[in-house]
Amino acid sequence: MDLNDQTTGAGPAGWWRHAVTYQIYVRSFADANGDGIGDLPGVTARLEHVRDLGVDAIWLNPFYVSPQNDHGYDVADYRDIDPLFGTLADADAMVERAHELDLRVIVDLVPNHTSSEHVWFQEALAAGPGSPERDRYLFRDSPDGPPNNWQSVFGGPAWTQVEDGQWYLHLFDSTQPDLNWRNPEVGDMFVDVLRFWLDRGVDGFRVDVAHGLFKEETLRDQVVPEGIESATGASAGESMVERTEVDEPMWDQPEVHEVYRRWHEVLAKYGGDRMMVAEAWTQSPESMARYIRPDEFSQAFNFSWLLAPWSAEAFAEVITGTFEAVDQVDASPTWVLSNHDVDRHPSRYGGGATGLARARAATLAMLALPGSAYLYQGEELGLEQVEVEPEFRQDPLWFRTGNPGRDGCRVPMPWSGSQPPFGFGPGTGQPWIPQPAEWSELTVESETADPASTLAFYRAALATRRTFAETAGEEVEMVAAGTDVLSFRRGPITVLLNCSTEAVALPAGEVLMASGPVDTALPPDTAVWLR
Ligand code: BGC
User: Does the beta carbon of 209 lie inside 6 Å of ligand 1?
Assistant: First the structure.
């Protein structure tokens, strides 16, 4: 295949290869109608903030019709908007406004499972065992308990029994039944869904649980090493982070790639400028690379950067490992530090002033790397993970396991003013999760007025990145720079990230950007771009 062929969407010319994409968690971004929950008109009204930040694209978490048991990752109708978030006309207006502001739009696609309220699942329940309706899901007879030992990612058995005695598989919540991708009707339905959104003008798809879809056909037991309670943990917060090499008959099966080759062709028919990015938690760089072969995904999230501890050695290993993987298939790398499933990175790095300094430094190092970066709403303000009171928690992980879950990184954005709801919605109505009072210092309004703010830092870093992102080349050369100091060179830019506890001398060069104060030395927890 000619990698420069734009019509395939796979060539080095694809816009996403250098893009910075800003993730919008719709329910927590901006609330236009005052019901305490963010919505699409809210997104549209606040897109100028995203444009001013200096990114290229937005990715919106699911806004489709859904009972919201997993905040929209339980889709009841893939072709309509949940009334909580607005209407199809609101979605069209959002896409139009984004395009006016030169922002591409990526929407979330959830193909591994539907909501139990999806018409297919309701038909399957009504039609009974052995019916074609049940064959769209993974129903099994098993008189002596669940058909196998698989555990849900959200805790507890991955099987639920229905009234007539059959069991159905759900790798996530019991309200998220897994589809049977060996049934051709399922594949055809998703091609229609892709076309529906492509016809409405979206530029791409973030594909949820892309490594799911197919399970080993026998649905055999998983071999669980002694001492490990559950090994189904791939995706969703903590369980993702603790994942180790295990037997996984429920993930990453070879048949899944046929699906993505078909989708790639669907996208290519739209002029080659549409993309798709995989959320695929695979076990090795080699298995990740299979998803981003030239005729499959445009790119895949690289969670190893996000999972790395605060250590120069760990960051260096991630960089080298990432290039080993993407170079196998001529794909572009991606980098991400935060999203709606993990603790926010200032908190992961220890919280407080140190956590924030490290977060800014890791972000600066990330933004110098070739490839594309994904930012999560609120990180440009330096927001930390919030400890949400149990009465407000809504994550199914919390209900199924008692683990506090992911709500703490989903607290609504603070825009302006000195008290909650900080301009999140009109008036004084409170959002679905209370915002901490201290966020008065972290609103977009107050940070815009402060040249030393994290927001000012993100804007400057993104503007500077634009001056070299497409011209500094795709090669990275690691440079020795002392104990616990990460350094690499990319074209004319040299990057240093000081993870140690001592200041280190700065090599010669013009300081293009720094994540904190620097003089002739680079203090701990600080990164710099030199030219
Ligand atoms: C999403 C999660 C979601 C899960 C089930 C993911 O990996 O990012 O937020 O709970 O898929 O759809």
Answer: yes
Q: Indicate whether residue 70 lines ligand 1 (CB < 6 A).
A: yes
pTM of the model: 0.95
Q: What is the best residue among 70, 110, 112 to mutate for testing ligand 1's pocket, by most ligand atoms within 8 Å of CB? A: 70
Q: Which of 66, 84, 74, 93 is nearest to 29 (CA)?
A: 84
Question: How many whole angstroms from 235 Cα to the centroid of ligand 1?
Answer: 7
The three state secondary structure string of 471-505 is: CCCCCCEECCCCCCEEEEEECCEEEEEECCCCCEE
Rounded CA-CA distance 104/313 in Å is: 35
Q: What is the pLDDT along the chain (531 residues), one digit of tens a residue?
A: 232 333 333 345 799 999 999 999 999 999 999 999 999 999 999 999 999 999 999 999 999 999 999 999 999 999 999 999 999 999 999 999 999 999 999 999 999 999 999 999 999 999 999 999 999 999 999 999 999 999 999 999 999 999 999 999 999 999 999 999 999 999 999 999 999 999 999 999 999 999 999 999 999 999 988 766 554 544 444 333 344 568 999 999 999 999 999 999 999 999 879 999 999 998 888 899 999 999 999 999 999 999 999 999 999 999 999 999 999 999 999 999 999 999 999 999 999 999 999 999 999 999 999 999 999 999 999 999 999 999 999 999 999 999 999 999 999 999 999 999 999 999 898 999 999 999 999 999 999 999 999 999 999 999 999 999 999 999 999 999 999 999 999 999 999 999 999 999 999 999 999 999 999 999 999 999 999
Mutational pocket test of ligand 1: of 208, 277, 395, the residue with most ligand atoms within 8 Å of the beta carbon:
208
Q: Which atom of ligand 1 is nearest to the CA of 70?
A: 10
